[in-house]
Amino acid sequence: MPKSKRNRPVTLSKTKKKGREHKEAIVNSIREAADKYASMYVFAFENMRNLKFKEFREQLKSSSRFFLGSNKVMQVALGRSVADEMRPGLRKISKFLRGDSGLFLTNLSEEEVKKLFDSFEVYDFARTGSIATEKVELKEGPLTEFTHEMEPFLRKQGMPVRLNKGAVELISDFVVCDEGKPLSPESARILRLLGMKLAVFKLRLICRWSEEGDGDFEVYNAELEESDIESS
Q1: Which portions of the sequence form the region Disordered (predicted)?
Q2: pTM across the whole model
C-alpha cells in the first residue's frame, strides 16, 4: 500500500531560517541607516495607501530612508534599554514604535521634515470597515448620477430604488453611512459610485531623535508622555 501523504514528514527548517534571515537583514539595514543619517523620527499613519506612500518615499530617497514592518524587529534594531541601544537615546524612540507606525531616517532639517509631513494628505475612497467621517444620506427622488442599467445593482446594495420612466428613483430617504460607524461592504461600494472620498491617508510625526549632543530626543504629541511608555 502506498504511504499516505498526510503522514509524510515536513521539514520547516528552511522556512524558519528564511524568516530569521529576513529579520536579521532588516535589523542590519536599520543599524546601517542609523549610522548614515543625522536624525530619526517615528511616524504614525492612517488609511495607508501603498502606491501613494511609495511615491512619497521616492521623492525623498536621495536624503532619507523609510522603514515599515514589524515594530518588534525595529525595536530590536534600535535597542530597548540602555544596555542594548545602538546609540545613546535610541531606546527612547524605540518605545514609540507601536500600532500603525514606522521609522523615518533623514539628513533633512527638522523644519523641512515637519513641512513635508504636515502637507502630505491624500484623499481616497474609504474601504470596508473604515470609520465613516461623516453622515451621508440620500433624499427621496431621482438619482440622476445613475443609469437605468444600475438599478438592479443598487437594489442589491440595499437601496430602496425603482425605475420610473427609465430613470432610477429613490422611493424613500436612504442613509449610506453614519458618522463614527464602520462602513459595510455595501456602503463602501455606494460611496465609490457616488465619487465620495471619505478616507484621508495621513502621516503624523510622533517623536524625533537627533545625533546632536548625547542623543537629543523630543516628543511631538503632548498626549504621549515618555513616562507612560517607559512604564509599559
Answers
A1: 1-21
A2: 0.77
